[in-house]
Amino acid sequence: MGKDLFWKLLEPHHPKAAAFCTRLVGDRDDGDDLYQDALLAAMRKFDTLVDKTAFRAWLYRIIVNRFKNRCRGWWWRQRVELSPSRPGPASEDDPEARLEARRELERLMAVLSPLDRVIVTLHEIEGWPTADLAAVLGKPEGTIKTRIFRAKNKMRARLRRLKAVGRATSHEVCEVAYAVQRSQKAAD
Question: Exposure winner among 102, 127, 155, 157, fewest CB in 10 A?
């Protein structure tokens, strides 16, 4: 019964959780590895989950912890690729522009700590409210809001360096992330 319930609870969250892993690591194969690793850990610990209605938050907490553990390893530092190219705006019809938008997003996210990368990905790309992030990460909502603000400032500073032009707005920082999100939804 336990395994059947696990798979039943996982089913509605599976596509988004798998996509979240891919976005975190920036590569489909590594994202699949992270997701499978997190699923194995979740299956092993499923009996410890008392409140089954909190499954989504519990699963994402496991994914986040697995991601943070991997980020401490040497392979993650070697995965970050900082190319000097500066792509134009992403077009939903142009696969090359979508790829360049993803690369631009990776360059912006490269300045973030693993936890900040998780927070920005879930909040800005996945659209999670700060209250849900607080529940998943076990931190006060005010702390989450502060981390979002600081992470955006880091990304904004990185964008300024990449573009070598005046002041960048928060909208410019998130524009690439939204373009990637739109192109991924259009592809689905």
Answer: 127
CATH of domain 1-79: 1.10.1740
pLDDT at 53 > cutoff 50: yes
Please provide the distance, in angstroms rounded to a whole number, between the alpha carbons at the two ends of the chain: 33
The DSSP line for 26-93 is: TSHHHHHHHHHHHHHHHHHHGGG---GGGHHHHHHHHHHHHHHHHHTSHHHHHH------------TT
Give the mean pLDDT of the chain.
76
d(CA 66, CA 166): 38
pTM of the model: 0.59
Q: Does residue 23 surpass a pLDDT of 90?
A: no
